[in-house]
Fold this sequence. Notes:
The structure is a single chain. 42% of the residues are buried. The chain has one domain: CATH 1.10.630.10. The protein is α+β, with helices and mostly antiparallel strands. The protein contains 15 helices and 14 strands. A hairpin with a 2-residue loop joins strand 5 and strand 6 (223-224). The two termini are 41 Å apart.
Amino acid sequence: MEQATTLPDHIAPEWVYDFDLYADHRFGDLLHASFDRIQREAPAVFWTPRNGGHWVVTRAAEIQEVVLDPAHFSAREMQIPRVPNPPKFLPLSLDPPDNIPYRQALMPAFSPKAVRGLEDKIRHWARTIVDGVAHKGECDFVYDVTELFPVSVFMELMGMDLGRLREFRLVAEHFFASQNDAAELEKSVGQIVGIMTEYIQQKQQEPDDALISQLAKAQINGRPITLGEMQNMCLLLFVGGLHTVTNLTGFAYWHLAEHPALQQTLAAHPERIVDFVEESTRLFGVINTPRIVAQDTERFGVRFRAGEMLVCMLPMGGRDERANAAPAEFDLDRKQREVLTFSKGPHLCVGHFLARAEIRILTEEWFKRVPSFRLKPGARQEYTMSTTIGLKHLPLVW
């Protein structure tokens, strides 16, 4: 992306660091290790002239201050660069207290109790999908496992047609690939809203026990939910449910494939898989969360002006040595762990309990069938980089 032509008057030259969120030249063979290098040389908060010009926040403490202060750093726009008609995700695009009724409508389906009630279904899908590859001796873990498993769980939770799984994955991938192209982004959002509207109307006529039907009965501030609100809630659920766990799991298993001693530990001591999930979540985050500056403020030694965009690099926050000792090391025994992957505060991801349960259960079932595996010779990370991060392939052999 071309640089902004001029530097805003209030931005001092020492605050500038040339960084391209979508295609930075520093992104190397292992993406998350590239983040470590950028974090070491870049300021904790800096302005980049790329992608329309915007702020970047890379450190845990500063990220937390931003996401916990919606009065100054609002979630009402989350596209970098800004677009004329930004998509609206409910409740994500609302700041508190406006987001609360929508979170309350979703939380019954994503609470710890609800997730525990889903464990049998989650385990069924994990067993089915791992059984489909275990006898082959090799697979593309992304295509054959992580693109199927969490998406199958999500689509069953929503009450969607599992026969359209691959189709919907491509739609979600196109959405994330369009973040810096306003026309394509608008087209992609329209496609997703069209898909979800079909399901909403179907469930209104033929309700079932799935989440879309539950949302159709939701009350928002004491009134029935509107079609537009349901569309915007389902837009968020669609792009989150078809992407986040898929990619987090992919990067975690890439690391696992390169560390046979860690595999041996998890195979022999499945109770340690919980620690594997938490450490993977810390180290291999896949979401960068943008904000728009709602009002002028001075923080972190820099001046923010209303209307400017910034992005909190959540994957970097978990790898900050100020928050986690020896942050680049994968340590199952870590006593204290600062995890920012699902954000914090009023916009903490509503699906984080489900995401953790999915990765844990998949790993339990994987090691029952494939206790030892490795990268296929010649494998290299191919990934997409955006406000979300995607791993394209993970060729494994055993």
